[in-house]
Amino acid sequence: MNVLITGGMGNLGSRLLIPLVRRKYQVVLFDGRPDPLISSPEFEKTLYFEGDVTNLESIIQAVHQHEIDVIFHLASLLSAQSERESNLAWEINMTGTRNVLEAARLGGVSRVTFSSSLATYGPGIKEPLEIDAPMWPASLYGVTKVASECLGNYYHLRFGMDFRSIRFPTLVAPRGASGAASAFCSAIFVEAFEKGAFNFEVGPDATFPAIYIGDAIRAFLLLFDAPNERLSRRVYNVHGLGLSARELANAVLRILPETNITYTPNPTLSVIVDSWPQFIDDSMARIDWDWEADYDLDRMAIEIITQLRNRSYNENP
Ligand SMILES: NC(=O)c1ccc[n+]([C@@H]2O[C@H](COP(=O)([O-])OP(=O)(O)OC[C@H]3O[C@@H](n4cnc5c(N)ncnc54)[C@H](O)[C@@H]3O)[C@@H](O)[C@H]2O)c1
């Protein structure tokens, strides 16, 4: 099977390629940069296509040249950067998704699996967040994710495309992406380990949902592998961990007790974080494709600090 990963050099993509290569799939990484965030022996077996999702022709060319069967569409500007660069966010997240779906349709690609986000929901949602709760996002990033899901669902209804999507909470990883409002969830591990100190830009009682990156990749593969007849919908929520900043700090302190943790809330960031639910009802994913998170907070913290100590950031889901 020939698999195209848009945004394949990023946090999620450079880890997702590992199990796909192990399945003997030919993986093509479609990205604007040639180096993966996480290097691995499996990366050496992938192909690189230098391209831009805002350019329809470049995706059509990649699909055609590599006879692509399925696409994982991950290329995106993340939440904080989308607020700073709204025109670019619109181009990459909106036009980019439309281009990927259109190139898939024209190229006879059988399946597009998309990484959405819980940022699709807005503030004031009751806990636990139910999948069909109203979606009135408080960020441009969330707006683009809602619209991308709707477009994917439209391609499914109109053209029979096998569009599948997961709304991920914050991905926590030893080397995380820096453009997300939730980047502090990963940064605390790196800074505690390297500098012995971490300053939260939210207060200790700020709460948020998160998922260990290894669990996120496992979720993606479970959804990807699920027989179509088991899917009752095209878009799913997954839950990993419901955390507060204090709980996250305490998990780090249990392993690195000398860490100096401080809190200097940034009002802009706090508004975004306060709009997030802490607990997610992911029963549809559990029913339809047997989803269950493997990692609790302490297991995740031990895993991440061990990877930082070993300078090995690869996932082996
Ligand atoms: N990081 C999180 O916490 C999180 C949470 C929920 C959902 N997601 C989603 O998961 C996906 C992957 O996120 P990530 O954490 O790996 O982000 P990332 O920033 O590490 O990776 C994104 C990749 O997309 C590439 N890219 C950006 N613009 C592009 C363009 N115009 N054309 C081609 N490639 C382009 C970047 O070079 C980068 O390699 C995104 O869709 C994101 O919205 C992430």
Task: Find the CATH superfamily of the largest domain.
Answer: NAD(P)-binding Rossmann-like Domain
Q: How many strands, which pairing sense, and closed or not: the largest β-sheet?
A: 7 strands, parallel
Radius of gyration over all CA atoms, rounded:
19 Å
H/E element string?
EHEEHEHHEHEEHEEHEEHEHHH
How many separate helices?
A: 11
Indicate the percent of residues in helices: 40-55%
CATH T-level fold name of the largest domain: Rossmann fold
By CATH reckoning, the class of the largest domain would read: Alpha Beta
Mean pLDDT across all amino acids = 94
End-to-end CA span: 20 Å
Indicate the proportion of strand residues: 15-25%
Low-confidence stretches are none
Number of separate strands: 12
Number of domains: 2
- The backbone outline, from C-alpha atoms, is globular
How do you describe this structure in short?
With 317 residues, this protein is of the alpha/beta class.
Q: How would you characterize the overall build of this protein?
A:
This protein has eleven helices and twelve strands. By secondary structure, the protein is an alpha/beta fold. The protein folds into two domains: 194 residues, NAD(P)-binding Rossmann-like Domain (Rossmann fold); 99 residues, UDP-galactose 4-epimerase, domain 1, CATH 3.90.25. It has a seven-stranded parallel beta sheet with strand order 3-2-1-4-5-6-10, sandwiched between helices. Strands 7-9-11 form a three-stranded mixed beta sheet. α1 links the parallel β1 and β2. The protein is globular. The protein starts with a strand and ends in a 7-residue tail after the last helix. It binds nicotinamide-adenine-dinucleotide. Nicotinamide-adenine-dinucleotide (NAD) binds next to α4, β5 and β7.
